[in-house]
Amino acid sequence: MATATEKQVVPFIPSSAMGPLGVAHLPRLWTKLSLGNAGVLAEGWDYCGQGFDDMTIGDLGLDKSKLLDFVKNSKPTYVQFEEYVKANGNTDAATVKKHNDAVFGYNHGDDTCKGIRGATGLKGDSVKDAVTLNMLEDLHELHTQLGR
After folding, report:
1. Which of 78, 90, 98 lies closest to 17 in space, CA to CA?
2. Which of 12, 78, 132, 141 has its CA 20 to 30 A from that of 24?
3. How far apart are the first and last CA of the chain?
4. pLDDT tens digits, residue range 29-73?
5. In 3-129, which residue ranges form alpha helices assigned H by DSSP?
6. Any bridge partners for residue 107, and if so which?
């Protein structure tokens, strides 16, 4: 059986996931940073991209460079990561709500939606929200990796 260090890993934690702070996407961000620092983040997945990653960092008022250095050098558990975010960012209820509303309210552009729906076999065009489409893309990759 392969270990995480023997193959690339897709960050299967969806952007809808929240830890104790209640911040959407934060567990996925930690997962991507942790996998990237270990050199096993699957090709095609951003280490720290311009979408939900930057949105989360910016909305919480975190210094991106310092956050990336902390994760790279400290290799924190998820709970330790949240403690860092709480100590170095803004996690008051209003900020978290505004951020979560932005994450759950974000829709991909038409071309991106069409591409993900086509790749995953999703029929119709009713699903446009990025959280759901990104999750379907991750799950489709898992199915592909399992050779199904």
Report:
1. 78
2. 141
3. 18
4. 999 999 999 999 988 889 999 999 999 999 999 999 999 999 999
5. 26-37, 52-59, 64-74, 78-88, 93-105, 110-120
6. 129
